[in-house]
Amino acid sequence: MKKTLDRIHSLEDLQRLARRRLPRLVSDFVDGGADREVTLASNMSDFDRIVLLPRALVDVSRRDLTVEVFGRRLALPVGLAPAGLARLVDREGELAAARAAGKAGTVFCLSTASSCSIEEVAEVASGPLWFQLYLWRHHEVVEDLVRRAAAAGYEALCLTVDVPVVGKRRRDLRNGMTIPPRVRSAGALDAARRVRWLWNLAWGDRITFRNFLGLADGDDATSLGAFVNRELVNPAATWEDVARLRALWKGPLVVKGILTATDALAALRCGADGLVVSNHGGRQLDGAPSAVAALPSVVEAVGGRIPVYLDGGVRSGADVVRAKALGAGMVFVGRPWFWGLAAGGEAGVSRMLEILADEVDRVLSLIGRPVFAEVGRDAVGAYQTVV
Ligand SMILES: Cc1cc2nc3c(=O)[nH]c(=O)nc-3n(C[C@H](O)[C@H](O)[C@H](O)COP(=O)(O)O)c2cc1C
After folding, report:
1. pLDDT-based confidence at 181, cuts 50/70/90?
2. Region 55-60: what's the mean pLDDT?
3. How far is the CA of 364 from the centre of ligand 1 (A)?
């Protein structure tokens, strides 16, 4: 395993390895986006359009990648974004990812729709944990989750606001992907070829939403899946519900899924302590701006009152630095940690974070700005065609 991971030198390498390891049904679930996947693609391509402007002959012999986030000093300005059902790609799922994040000195944000529970993850984590929440249809579910996250020591609550309905993910529809997943006859042969994946799964418990054991009609995967499908999406949710949540949760409240100045200000009015500029990795509204294109207007509207973070399309250390230059205090990655998990469990996630740390470190040297926290707007320019 270590040998294979040593040959991985970029997040693209990692994605390729993950694709080889996973059945199509699963890799499409992870990699796919909504509708025509235009927003998904722009999350990456818009980063490429931002040029980094180097300063020469600056002493860069000592670099500093650390950032302070809600009173915690993180070793790395890259956290793991909330992504559900991680045990679909690796037997240990979120447990392995939380351990890897802790070892790298960064944040692991657990999804509500996780395949390991709030308490199970808290037990193995050594670094800061955030808990991601949706405004569930029934307030009692929200209250229960918030109480459990607080009791288990989660430091921040990350409220996702971009799922009034679930985006139309064509790849999943085509593949017959369901929650809980069932390998149908068309995909069975493909799945049977992924020996490592099958072996891995054979040793684990049934993959399900473990935060809801005891809440649904039954604890089998189908009942829990039906419960989540019914309860998670709450098209009636409004900013008033956010204000209500604010009263419930005493720690930092981060609102994820902000793409406009208007929503940034609404979140501020509700008492948010931080924002994540995000389009859910292009999995919700196709046609929404890329995360990095939306970042400057949100940063401007907030005017430094609360920190602004970003996720979506971060695939290299250069992207992390570009986001910082445009005002993101730190970034989060979603798919990359799933690729790491698929490629090599905890070691694969660690390798992904190690690659990004190394790349950020190198870019800081190359642009003549050795302190990540001090990278500002003057480090980037807009891409222009040369005529
Ligand atoms: C497989 C998968 C599952 C996800 N599940 C959730 C979730 O449960 N809650 C949530 O707020 N965001 C979820 N997201 C979105 C991520 O938190 C994040 O916004 C997105 O992945 C960032 O884009 P990136 O994958 O390009 O890094 C999920 C993303 C993926 C790829």
Report:
1. low
2. 98
3. 27
